[in-house]
UniProtKB/TrEMBL annotation:
This is Aminotransferase. PANTHER family: AROMATIC-AMINO-ACID AMINOTRANSFERASE (PTHR11879:SF37), ASPARTATE AMINOTRANSFERASE (PTHR11879). Its cofactor is pyridoxal 5'-phosphate. The lineage of its organism: Bacteria, Pseudomonadati, Pseudomonadota, Betaproteobacteria, Rhodocyclales. Keywords: Aminotransferase, Pyridoxal phosphate, Transferase. The keyword Transport does not apply. Gene3D superfamilies: Aspartate Aminotransferase, domain 1, Type I PLP-dependent aspartate aminotransferase-like (Major domain). Belongs to the class-I pyridoxal-phosphate-dependent aminotransferase family.
Amino acid sequence: ASIFAAVEMAPRDPILGLNEAFAADTRAEKVNLGVGVYYDDNGKIPLLAAVRAAEKARLEAQPPRGYQPIEGLAAYNGAVQNLLFGKDSALIANGQVITVEALGGTGALKVGADYLKRLLPGATVYISDPSWENHRALFESAGFPVETYPYYDAATRGVNFAGLKARLESLAPGSVVVLHACCHNPTGADLSDAQWNEVVDACRSRGLVPFLDMAYQGFADGIAADAVAVRAFSTSGLQFFVSSSFSKSFSLYGERVGALSIVTAGKDESARVLSQVKRVVRTNYSNPPTHGGAVVAAVLNSPELRQQWEDELAGMRERIRAMRTGLVEQLKAAGVAQDFSFVIKQRGMFSYTGLTAAQVEKLKSDFGIYAVSTGRICLAALNSKNIGYVAKAIAAVVK
Ligand code: PMP
């Protein structure tokens, strides 16, 4: 018999399943709000002009395709550190930050999780309730038990901060806490600056190990403003992990460009930790691919391209904001009595709309509008052509 004869079918990824159903839908007016991708006003994934310029220069230079160092391109890792910690960061100057290029934010989380398992084999990992669905799977596959801390409060459509804080203050020392640095996926509800300081205090007093996940830097208020959590931990004296991604902010999803950064107590520790993280990388994929990191580094390290990128990023951020405001206005205009103004306060690409699974189902069956059954929609999939249709459809299902 085949060695695969008894293999069971793995459960389908719920969001990929949604995409397949959307693709098979023949209605011309269909809209996919289930995705986690930024589309422009024409419904296309943009190729940023700054990226195009850097790619053109790179192609013309015809660089040889040797192996990268295990930790990736130094110019890339340095640029990542400046974005996350600020270019005048004392941690960087002191040699307290190590960064390895990774295969997207997912790859950064995976390398970080595998390294943490070697460092703290008995730890439990805590993720927000709810969280990006891959967080649990990633840390479980690294061998950790994964539990949740309270996060979303459906009644206020904000963060249950008292619950979150009480839970952190009750965790065993050495527990790993995965925190969304900004633009919480899936809820769109973020902590305030003051609340971040309280989270830092709780992590310090309980001896917790913070792991910040930064997948949307620049999508809420701006590059530096969105790094508030990283900056709050930076001045705390704590050691912590940061995974980061350029999938959205550079619109480079398929190039797999991310990074894992770790803050240590000092330069000597950094050298030892880096040597261990490199072992994780070496035994996994040896070294990262060249193209994406080279392009991002070229943009971030050129003053002109960097400015162009910041302008393009601001354009994406402002378009999402306009879609939030527009949706709220059009729902009101469509006669919806319920107050949807919370959509304007939520940050990043997503909104927990409060739509029930039955309402989401009706959006699909009656209107060809696809959303996640939890009521999560992607605002970046709305545009000037489909927003009116979506608002009328939501109005019809909530009435
Ligand atoms: N973390 C969060 C919170 C995300 O939403 C995502 C994906 N959108 C990632 C990590 C993974 O990013 P990447 O696509 O770069 O692997």
